[in-house]
Amino acid sequence: MVTRDTAWEPGTPCWVDLGTDVAKAKVFYSALFGWQIEEGDPQFGGYANCFVDGRPVAGLGPLQEGQETGWVTYLSTTDLDATLEKVTAAGGKVFVPPMEIGEMGAMAIAADSTCATFGLWRSGIHTGMRLANEVGAVTWNEHLSTDYDKAKQFYADVLGYSYQEVGDDGFNYATIVTTNPEWPVGGIGGNTDKSGWTTYFQVSDADAAVAKVQELGGKLVSGPTDSPHGRNAVVTDDQGAEFVVIAVPSQQ
Description:
Layout: E1 2-3, E2 13-20, H1 22-33, E3 36-37, E4 48-52, E5 55-62, E6 70-76, H2 80-89, E7 93-100, E8 105-111, E9 117-123, E10 131-132, E11 138-144, H3 148-159, E12 162-165, E13 173-177, E14 186-189, E15 196-202, H4 206-215, E16 219-225, E17 231-236, E18 242-247
Parallel strand pairs: 2-5, 6-9, 11-14, 15-18
Antiparallel strand pairs: 1-10, 2-6, 3-4, 4-5, 7-8, 8-9, 11-15, 12-13, 13-14, 16-17, 17-18
Protein name: VOC domain-containing protein
């Protein structure tokens, strides 16, 4: 379990949120993960923070015009403008320019050079996830790409990432390092037909979580399968947003 009450180190996945029908999503995710979900503040468009043990772990916001439902991974930065300049210089695009969210902080939405969407967050009083690697919270963020080398170069140029290769023949995968090689902040891989960031939520029992997803109107995409890091499955919620549930070995 990781708890944190200060801003995350630059480049670290620090927050996830979902563009969705918020009322429906509250029912689904509170039943699946046991989240306590606040009433969204009208001044922020009804955006609602989700909590585990009183600590924020994720957000739910209404879909904007033309937006498809999906979980967005936000990467921490101390300077939005400078980071976005690097995004465009490295071949990415800015979809939502810097936006101040009151005293909470500031955000932007961009796409990398392989067309994967991600967010950037500059902390104010909202520092992002205050709980991770715990049941009901995010435990891993992963970028899968149509062009493995191009994606790695993009994030190295924009956020200073370095990588530790852990894949083998025919399987490209590396852990993402910011400053501490012993503390990877995520993963990056290839061998996919569509680039994107994926959110892993920790559960106590992957099979039971899949059954609950289906009971609530979601779908099983693949799995459950066993890995050295835990039993996991790719699922969607009842509105089509994809994510992964994983039971880490200590929770099996």
